[in-house]
Specification:
The complex is a heterotrimer of chains A (562), B (306) and C (212).
Chain A lengths: L1 H18 L3 H19 L6 H32 L4 H7 L5 H19 L8 H7 L2 H27 L4 H24 L3 H28 L3 H36 L10 H4 L1 H14 L6 H19 L2 H33 L6 H4 L6 H19 L1 H16 L15 E3 L4 E3 L1 H23 L4 E4 L17 H4 L1 H6 L1 H4 L1 E9 L5 E10 L2 H21 L7 H19 L1
Antiparallel strand pairs in A: 1-2, 4-5
Chain B lengths: L1 H30 L9 H11 L2 E4 L4 H19 L16 H21 L3 H32 L4 H5 L6 H17 L18 H4 L5 H26 L10 H28 L8 H20 L3
Helix pairs in contact in B: 1-9, 1-10, 2-9, 3-4, 3-9, 4-5, 5-7, 5-11, 7-9, 7-11, 9-10
Chain C lengths: L1 H18 L3 H26 L2 H29 L11 H22 L5 H23 L3 H23 L4 H29 L13
Helix pairs in contact in C: 1-2, 1-5, 2-3, 2-6, 3-7, 4-5, 5-6, 6-7
The chains are: A mainly alpha (562), B mainly alpha (306), C mainly alpha (212).
Chain lengths: 562, 306, 212
């Protein structure tokens, strides 16, 4: 009951955040959103991990809010009122240096909520611990309100002052992409994996947005609109497929009681609908045509390509490298989701609890089918959606988008500057047609199939069971070794022997060092704690001391007012 | 008139594809001072596979059975996008060069899943290595495509293949694309197609559990993928001899030029396969980074106008 | 003229409270200060002919002269503690500190109150010094009763400040404050009783375990 109330309040507060026109109410709605999501994160308060996750989340989000308030106060000083319209008209009078500072404050403030590296550390704690439907909304919608805030305040209200703003956002976005996906590859908790992918996808969204800011400053309005469209489109797509993936993860958790993929397996036979939904989500997030994730990634790549075409030498290389790193994250994401889907759903179950898993209930299946339909729809109807997004982007930049037409008819996208076309419905039709023709041809020419069923090839050992399957740790081992300069993995082994020759059990655990936690956050936290310890000495315990503090303050006031 | 020619072009290339593998094998064997099997051996192998019975593991699910068709369809869709013989005929309203990379990724995704599906350790190992290698090589592919597209001001393969002059940076891009071909078509030094030892398996490990006609379909798909990449280099990056119209004589010249370019590529690959040794898996990172640096060099040279 | 006499009487009673060494003495000092304050308020009420001030003066008499001291002496009798009001500073030094407070408040008043009406100037400085004296009693005396009395003296000073400079606080605020004070004393009395029961002393200085 309380859960549903909080849920409704959460959705309402998010709707409020994106619709108000006054900075004060925006802050109130923002705070309400943060607080309610905090309560939802620690909903399972008996679990001490949830409480810890909640603390990290609430501290980080309040640090971000503090930065946002600081920037609002500066804007208020120039505008005289808290309305967004007043901010916008006053932004012309703000000196450029101050605009740079406001930009940085807003970037840090909204970046904490969005999950840009290095402010992302709350995401992998908070999203797994929250109940799954909350995680899906938090990951799908809440971190996007931060992107909304960035667009509204930095692009629309403040106006872009320097080209280094866009460059900074591009670099942070690339960092988020790569860091997010590399950590995601190492994770074996299903929801933690998805949370790290949220970090990565925020990076991809910011790639589009950062590129649009750079293009705007370079006086390339068509490209700016195109990249912003790509970023916004990815925003919507991510909400859809990440929501779907989190819901599936929740269904798996409910059915089996564990989120650890190393203990799952073979669920495709017991939970076919969940498996199909997770497969759709995985295909979408790995940018596989013709689903929606592919369209937004293609658009971002095209935007980078056109940017490289139209900009001077240094930027050509920069944009090309951005595009190739985007392709890298796409490839790594596909690898990660092959692992996630393959080990969770395919082959044999790896633990006993999994064999009794039951399919999700009707309401869950309904949600799955709905989200799957949305995924496919947003992929096939890309041309139609781009038309709407062009208008939105034009409004955000204050440009006239009459002539910018990125879709030919309602079925295919066309980038006139580069003469490239993309038609997702055509891809789907051609694909289905070819698959169908192949199927028919094979049947016609080779007769009916005779399929025998037998054990997996076992090299001559009989009775192979789930213990010889590939594990998730093994799947990600090449990545662990390739990226070990960043992950700094270490392992712990434990051998229990009965005698020198007979090892009874051997435990092997691999850990990755969380460098952000170790080198950035832990020093800051210990500094803060040290300062707090010193300040504690004021509290001496005697009432008279405390009263004396008051008297001294009054005396000092009297002195100074002289 | 365009669509039938496009379909005809694609069918011709599909027919051609196993022959390319046969030629490569023949040249390799000749280099090894052996006579070797005939160039049409892949066709005989496929015919044999279609006739055989198929055995599917107990553990497999519907993904295992659907994958061969998906992989084949994705390879053929990629083939449709390449203007091999006529520079203005390909299904370019469907997509551009970047789509080729992603469509092949679709096939690879399902193939990796099928490797994990049967619950054998070989399949898992193959899937893991395949995803590893492909994710490292994807930025190189995109970068090479960028270089070539920057020179032609478009990612549309039709426009690129109609360019009169081949820029120097495109040649460098072709070199890094050659690295991509080695990785994607599982050639030495990345993977060995001739062996079934687990130490050296990547692609073969993933399809270990397949037999009969499914295996035949997957083999056809890998031949087609190979010829897609070869055509990219032959017809898109080095469009010498490609015809711009559909008259018979220009078509014949175009097909002849295409065959010559493919043969040159086959010779390159065979020599490389015979003379190099297969790398350790984790050395693929170095391999990919060399290719990446090459393509960045291509971008830099392209930005200088060459 | 009467006003000046009364104001100086308030100051003197303040000094007496500061110099007091026993609980009984400080309570007697408080009663006398409240009485003089009552007379002062009556005088002000007569001068300004406001009915409200009469009512307030009456309330002052009832609450601060009769009720509160009654409760205070009741608690003192009940808990049967040592009469000695623990002092941090001996009476001589305390008197000098109080003198310093008076000087300070006089200078302060000089700066902020314009010297038009004589009453306000003198009354404000006296009230400020009474406030500071009340705080002094709270800080530099060990027993809990001293803290209660110090609070009440501070409130006396505040009342005087309000009454002299602005003609009294709004009526309802005055009533509310009186009620508050009265309730405060009752609650504090309860607390003192409990402290005595728990620790067998009401020496607040010894209750310093709640440290950081």
């Amino acid at each position: 009951m309380l859960g549903w109330l909080l849920f409704a309040g959460f959705v309402l507060s998010m709707a409020l955040v994106v619709t108000v026109g006054n900075a004060l109410i925006f802050l109130i709605a923002w705070e309400i959103m943060s607080m309610i999501s905090y309560f939802l994160v620690i909903f399972d308060h008996t679990h001490e991990k949830s409480v810890k996750a909640g603390i990290i989340y609430i501290v980080m989000t309040h640090i971000g809010t503090a930065f946002i308030i600081a920037s609002f106060l500066i804007l208020f000083k120039y505008a005289g009122s808290f309305d967004f319209a007043a901010f916008k008209s006053a932004s012309r009078t703000i000196p450029p240096n101050l605009k740079h500072i406001i930009f940085l404050l807003l970037l840090v403030g909204f970046g904490t909520k969005a999950g840009i590296v290095p402010l992302h550390i709350w995401l992998p704690y908070a999203h797994p611990q929250a109940p799954s439907h909350i995680s899906s909304i938090m990951s799908g919608v809440m971190i996007k309100t931060a992107i909304y805030g960035m667009l509204r305040f930095i692009v629309f209200i403040l106006g872009i002052e320097g080209i280094w703003w866009g460059n900074l956002i591009l670099i942070l976005a690339l960092l988020s992409c790569l860091v997010g996906v590399i950590y995601a590859l190492m994770e074996h908790d299903l929801k933690r994996l998805l949370a790290y992918h949220s970090v990565e996808n925020i990076g991809i969204i910011l790639l589009g947005i950062g590129a649009s800011m750079v293009f705007l400053k370079m006086n390339l309005p068509v490209l700016a609109v195109l990249s912003l469209c790509a970023g916004l489109y990815h925003l919507i797509n991510h909400a859809i497929f990440k929501g779907l993936l989190f819901l599936c993860a929740g269904a798996v958790y409910k059915a089996t009681g564990t989120r650890n993929i190393e203990k799952l397996g073979g669920l495709i036979k017991m939970m076919p609908w969940t498996a199909a939904a997770f497969l759709t989500g995985s295909l979408a997030i790995s940018a596989i045509p013709p689903l929606n994730g592919f369209v937004s990634e293609w658009l971002t790549l095209q935007a980078f390509f056109l940017g490289a075409l139209s900009s001077p030498g240094g930027y050509k290389v920069f944009f090309s490298i951005c595009a190739s790193l985007l392709a890298l994250t796409g490839g790594l994401t596909a690898a990660c989701f092959v692992k996630a889907f393959g080990i969770t759903f395919l082959a044999l179950p790896r633990s006993k609890g999994v064999t009794e898993a039951k399919e999700a209930t009707f309401s869950m299946k309904f949600a799955f089918v709905f989200m799957m339909l949305l995924t496919v729809l947003f992929g096939l109807a890309a041309a139609f959606i781009i038309k709407l997004l062009v208008k939105v982007s034009g409004f955000i930049f204050g440009l006239n988008t009459e002539g910018m037409n990125f879709s030919i008819n309602n079925f295919s996208l066309a980038i006139p500057q580069s003469g490239a076309y993309l038609s997702t419905p055509l891809i789907a039709i051609v694909f289905a047609a070819i698959a169908g023709i192949c199927f028919l041809c094979v049947h016609l020419f080779a007769g009916r199939s005779r399929i025998g069923s037998y054990n997996t090839w076992d090299c001559g050992y009989y009775n192979l069971d789930a213990r010889t399957e590939y594990t998730a740790t093994a799947f990600s081992k090449p990545f662990r070794i390739a990226f070990n300069f960043f992950l700094l993995p270490y392992s712990k082994t434990e051998k229990i022997r009965e005698s020198f020759y007979h090892v009874k059990s051997f435990k092997y655990e691999v850990f990755t060092t969380f460098i952000f936690r170790r080198y950035v956050y832990d020093p800051i936290i210990s500094l803060v704690l040290l300062a707090a310890k010193q300040t504690r000495k004021i509290q001496a315990g005697s009432i008279h001391m405390y009263l004396a503090y008051i008297l001294i303050t009054i005396l000092l006031l009297i002195f100074f007012y002289r | 008139m365009d669509i039938p020619i496009c379909i005809g072009q694609t069918l011709l290339l599909m027919l051609f594809a196993p022959l390319v593998s046969g030629i490569i094998k023949k040249i390799k064997n000749n280099l090894r001072m052996r006579i070797g099997a005939s160039v049409f051996q892949p066709y005989y192998n496929l015919a044999k596979l279609f006739a055989k019975e198929e055995v599917v593991s107990h553990n497999a699910s519907w993904i295992f059975r659907v994958t061969p068709f998906i992989v084949l369809a994705s390879s053929i869709s990629a083939l449709l996008l390449v203007p091999a013989f006529v520079s203005r005929i390909s299904l370019n309203s469907m997509g551009d060069l970047l789509l080729i990379v992603f469509v092949l990724a679709l096939g690879r995704f399902f193939l990796a899943l099928a490797g994990l599906d049967t619950g054998s350790a070989f399949g898992g190992m193959g899937s893991s290595r395949e995803m590893f290698i492909s994710s490292l090589i994807e930025p190189v592919a995109v970068m090479s495509i960028f270089v070539v597209s920057l020179n032609a001001h478009s990612t549309n393969p039709q426009i690129i293949s109609s360019m009169p002059v081949v820029a120097f940076s495109s040649i460098i891009a072709a070199t890094s694309l050659f690295f991509v071909i080695i990785a994607e078509t599982s050639r030495i030094p990345v993977d060995n197609q001739e062996t079934h030892l687990e130490l050296t398996m990547v692609h073969e490990a993933m399809v270990l559990e397949y037999s009969g006609r499914s295996l035949a379909l997957i083999e056809i798909a890998s031949y087609i993928k190979q010829i897609v990449f070869f055509s990219l280099i032959a017809s898109v990056i080095f469009p010498w001899g490609i015809s711009s119209g559909i008259s018979i004589d220009s078509l014949l010249i175009s097909i002849g030029a295409y065959c010559m370019k493919i043969t040159i590529l086959c010779v390159f690959i065979s020599v490389l396969e015979v003379s190099a040794a297969k790398m350790r898996l984790f050395r693929v990172v170095d391999f990919a980074s060399i290719a990446f640096v090459l393509s960045v060099l291509g971008v830099i040279i392209s930005s200088m106008g060459r | 003229m009467f006003v000046d006499i009364l104001l100086s009487a308030i100051l003197i009673t303040g000094f007496l409270m500061i110099a007091a060494k026993r609980i009984g003495a400080i309570i007697k000092g408080f009663i006398s200060q409240s009485l003089i304050l009552f007379l002062l308020t009556l005088l002000l009420a007569y001068k300004s002919h406001s009915v409200e001030l009469y009512v307030v003066a009456g309330l002052l008499f009832v609450v601060k002269v009769i009720l509160i001291p009654h409760f205070l002496s009741r608690i003192v009798k009940k808990i049967k503690v040592d009469e000695n009001l623990g002092l941090f500073l001996n009476p001589t030094v305390s008197i000098f500190v109080a003198l310093f407070f008076v000087y300070l408040s006089y200078i302060f008043t000089d700066k902020i109150v314009c010297v038009e009406e004589g009453i306000e100037h003198g009354a404000f400085s006296v009230s400020l010094s009474v406030i500071l004296m009340g705080m002094f009693i709270m800080i530099f005396r060990m027993k809990a009763i001293a803290q209660i009395v110090g609070l009440l003296v501070t409130e006396n000073g505040l009342f005087l400040a309000a009454a002299s400079v602005s003609g009294g606080m709004p009526f309802f605020v005055e009533i509310a404050v009186f009620f508050d004070i009265f309730l405060c004393v009752i609650i504090l009395e309860l607390f003192v009783y409990k402290i005595n029961k728990a620790f067998t002393h009401i020496d607040v200085h010894r209750l310093n375990g709640l440290k950081g």
